Amino acid sequence: MRALYANEMSAPGLTKNRKVGAVLAFADARLAAGHVAFSMSQLVEGTALTRSAAKSQLRRLSHKIVRISKAHPFFVIVSPEHGLRGSPPVDSWLDDYFQWLDHPYYLALQSAASAYGSNPQSIQVIQVMTDKPRRPVTVGQLHIVFFVKRSIQDTPTQQLANAFAPTRVSTPAATAFDLIRYAARIGGIGRTVETLRPLLPLIDQTALRGVLEAEDETATAQRLGYILEKTGKPKLAAVVEHWLPAKRPTIPLATMSANHPAGPVASPWRIVDNSGEFQS
Questions:
Q1: Is the whole-model pTM more than 0.85?
Q2: Most buried of 22, 32, 99, 175 (most Cβ within 10 A)?
Q3: Does domain 1-88 have CATH number 1.10.10?
């Protein structure tokens, strides 16, 4: 585990002889310290309870302390102001959760775009990128789905602005790249373009060039360059064209589209707009 969890917090005033209400006291101490989450090992060490005793008290506090999943003994504390939603906001505990898992993550795709003000359609899930497959998680009314990127450490990220606690989010340029790469899994190329348009003014040429170098995916870059050109961003499109290899394959714009016939090959991207998104 990372250094953050090397020395786990003990709730003040708890002793081995004072165990009644120990879990509730521990949760209150966590909240007072600015944390809304904790692991079972933190709880056991902080209260001197056995795991069995801790689980028993947790069951009686199920309205206030919620387990993230059956697979993971990690819990969030539901304060009264979050009672109707059944969970504190995801940006108050996501970083703690992934530090406990000891895996990288970042808020991604449409959730990241929404953080930058792009909300063309309301999404019902929170999208998180990480480095290995994980089952979706439901905590109260929060539904979290995970996407996998093996090279996640190379993706440019930054801290989410105005978050309750430190939370990683992909930069606008990295979010744009991810939206194209995962288009088939987030509603198709049409919805991707709709989400991407409000994001484009936030992307500068240097940041885009950095993302292209970091991700190093020719096909995704071809699709992104074509879309940038079609959405009226010639300078950004030129950055992509300059990065692309001179010889590039001919590929479809939409990787999963059977509704539109193949059209002409668009130069210089070698893209066939089989989605019909930009066909007149």
A1: yes
A2: 175
A3: yes
